[in-house]
């Protein structure tokens, strides 16, 4: 619509059809919208109002219900001090995975830090891109992000649970396994 001349092509008023729980209703996008034709001169306003309706107005009741519940848990005055990116960091954690920090916070069972397989493991993890490291972290912990307090604050099934590498005594050719409830990587010998 914005890229083409709509003169004589579109017969539309400043209204939109909205599905409200299975019932189709015509909604005016602005006061008197049912009597205002969309023309070449006002089509940008029409498109802006349609987008605003779809992204804001059509879900305002759901957003209000969500925010009411959210503010019951975290009072509005406490959350308003954060910018959106700060709030995301607080809720989701950090997206950058520091391999040295992970190594320092890791506990081992059945392995020693000098074992060749452990050296290969850390070398392989260092060679990963951040996206691959995130996928690895998701595989072992069920989260692709580092907690705000770092790897020392990883959560498991029973609270804070450190990252662990345990030797997997299995048949030759076995693949690494994970137990996400315990932030546990089961690493076979190679």
Structure description:
It is a single chain. It is built from seven helices and eight strands. The chain has 190 residues and is of the alpha/beta class. The chain has two domains: 15-92, no CATH class; 99-188, Hect, E3 ligase catalytic domain (Hect, E3 ligase catalytic fold), CATH 3.30.2410.10. The protein has helices spanning 43-55, 60-73, 76-79, 84-92, 99-105, 116-127, 130-141, and strands at 15-20, 23-28, 107-109, 155-156, 159-160, 164-168, 177-179, 184-188. The strands form three sheets. The protein has a four-stranded mixed beta sheet, covered by helices on one side.
CATH topology call of the largest domain: Hect, E3 ligase catalytic fold
Strand pairing plus helix content: what structural class? Answer: alpha/beta
The second-level CATH architecture of the largest domain is 2-Layer Sandwich
Tertiary shape = elongated
The CATH class label of the largest domain is Alpha Beta
Report how far the terminal alpha carbons are from each other: 61 Å
> Main sheet?
4 strands, mixed
Radius of gyration, taken over Cα atoms and rounded to an integer in Å: 27 Å
Share of β-strand residues: 15-25%
Report the order of strands and helices: EEHHHHHEHHEEEEE
The overall number of domains is 2
Strand order of the largest sheet: 3-6-8-7
Mean pLDDT across every amino acid position: 90
